[in-house]
Amino acid sequence: MTIEDIEKAVARLSPEELAKFRAWFDEFEAQRFDRKVERDIGAGGLDRFADDALAEHRAGRSREL
User: Fold this and answer.
1) Residue 13 phi, psi dihedral angles, 5° rounding
2) Over the stretch 21-49, which tens digit does the pLDDT of each residue have?
3) Whole-number Å distance between alpha carbons of 6 and 42
4) Domain count, the chain
């Protein structure tokens, strides 16, 4: 199956089917994003951002939300 095949199939969906597909795809993408963030955290990929945020907070450059 090609991207063009998928595009054609999606274009033929009824409004109800399209809504169901959109909900499924949103959840699919959210799960992929979550897995990537978890991998990045596990690999220390976000440590620098956390360190920077903590340094800013300690320097008094943060505010309570």
Assistant:
1) -70, 145
2) 999 999 999 999 999 999 999 999 889 99
3) 34
4) 1
